Hints:
Blueprint: E1 3-5, H1 10-18, E2 21-26, E3 36-41, E4 46-50, E5 53-59, H2 65-72, E6 75-81, E7 89-99, H3 104-110, E8 119-133, H4 149-169
Antiparallel strand pairs: 1-8, 2-3, 2-6, 4-5, 5-8, 6-7, 7-8
Amino acid sequence: MGDQLEAIDDKLAAWMTSQPMFFVSTAPLDPQGLVNCSPKGLAGTFAVLGPRQVAYLDLTGSGIETIAHLRENGRMVIMFCAFDGRPRIVRLHGRGSVLLPGEPSFVELAGRFSGHEGVRSIIVLDVARLSDSCGYAVPRMTYEADRDVLDLDHRKRGAQGLAEFRAEWNATSLDGLPGLD
């Protein structure tokens, strides 16, 4: 699967943070459980914390698979694809952890990200394997702009509405694993 890299250098960090979209995949331990793959985006929601550590701002959504799977087993891969420029795919395999608002580590990292309504957590990945592959089959696509729909929805719901939404949609994963309290 391509070339293994030793660490995230400045050039790779700049490339990853300039991508408008990345994908996060996790899975429960149960072999009958559902593998989850989620697209992520919005400028300023991904950060390189060190040569083998990254994080992203997790915003409220209708599922809680990533958080539930990470709490159960920590396994995660983040994948970036170049949709313009030189073809490239970068995968970061490792162990993820969940930082919730109010936790000291969350407060320390929150300033590294752009501001958004509906922040649910910060997901941190300690990278065990870093690889780079060709991406020759990834199509060229033109980036227009970030969508503002999620922020508008979160703003419209307000703090109480978001709390109610999370209680209904983020309490358990599709497989019944615990999500948010």
